[in-house]
Amino acid sequence: MNERIIGGESFSQAVAAHPKSFPTLYVNMIYAGEASGALVDVLHRLVEHYERMDSMKSKIKGAMTYPICVMFVGVGAIIVALCFIVPRFKMVFDSCGGELPATTQLLVSMSDNMLEYGWIYAIVTFLLIVWFKKWKKSENGRQKIDSWKLKMPLIKGIVATGQYSSLAFTLQTLLANGVKVLEALRISEQVCDNAVISKALSVARQRVTDGTSISAPLAASNAFPKLMTDMLTIGEKAGSINKSLGHIGQRYQKEMDRNISKLTNALGPIMIGVISIVVGFIAVAIISAVFQLSSAMASGR
């Protein structure tokens, strides 16, 4: 970049030459700042924007970390029990003879199945993971997954509000720095990481007729909540769309925070409850067999 600027290129041109390091939003903001003579202010706004986006992404990742960890620990504990603990008890049960309770027989069958076909399950799981990673990168896969994210209970509240907040802040940052509406929509479409909303932005951009209004095209796409488009309409009519976008961003960011809190409060007990039921079943199956065999041995004496 230093060599390009020394060679006569502008700062925006030098930045645009490194698309892997500087996204489209960054390049266009720098260009707008140079054109308006307010590059320093633009850089400050970019810092605020990316810090805000990073904070939102960190909150979403943090909300998912605990449930995922609990799930992996629970699944690991169940696999260890079926592959190592239950087989040892089975040897004891076989040596004592007698008929086992139905729950114990089911548990032993599950353990035998895991020991005999476990390697097949592992290979199939690995192949499914590889296929899924490849599929989700395809256009159809990305559309499907992003659509599920916007519909799944608990998850949709976080993903949707996060996307609405991110879009509002992005548009506000662009429009406040003199970027035209059509260009702002194009950039927002490119930086959006949800394929469904990105497609809706593409359709809305094609419907913009006068080059200024964005509320009507966004409302027509049916991908955005009525409250959001109504607030945009009011902002356009009042001539303060930047303030409206800021309020929209803050409103949905607060809602996202509440949804994250709901998710963490709900998923934790749900995951622990499910794992407790499975572990409890294993414990009851083993203990009931021990008591039954003990009773049989005592009566045999």
List the helices and strands and how they pair.
Blueprint: H1 2-6, H2 11-16, H3 24-36, H4 39-96, H5 102-137, H6 139-149, H7 155-176, H8 181-191, H9 195-207, H10 215-220, H11 226-238, H12 241-300
How would you explain this protein's 3D organization?
The chain has helices at residues 2-6, 11-16, 24-36, 39-96, 102-137, 139-149, 155-176, 181-191, 195-207, 215-220, 226-238, 241-300. With 301 residues, it is an all-alpha fold. The protein has 2 domains: 2-36, no CATH class; 66-254, Type II secretion system (T2SS), domain F (Receptor-associated Protein), CATH 1.20.81.30. α3 (24-36) packs antiparallel against α4 (39-96) and α8 runs antiparallel to α9. The longest helix is centred in the last third of the chain and has 60 residues, at 241-300.
When the domains are counted, the total is: 2
Instruction: Characterize the overall form.
Output: elongated
What gyration radius follows from the Cα positions, in whole Å?
A: 28 Å
The helix-and-strand class reads mainly alpha
CATH level 1 name of the largest domain: Mainly Alpha
What is the fold named in CATH at topology level of the largest domain?
A: Receptor-associated Protein
**Main beta sheet:** none
Return the CATH architecture of the largest domain: Up-down Bundle
Task: Output the keywords.
single chain; 301 residues; mainly alpha; Receptor-associated Protein; elongated
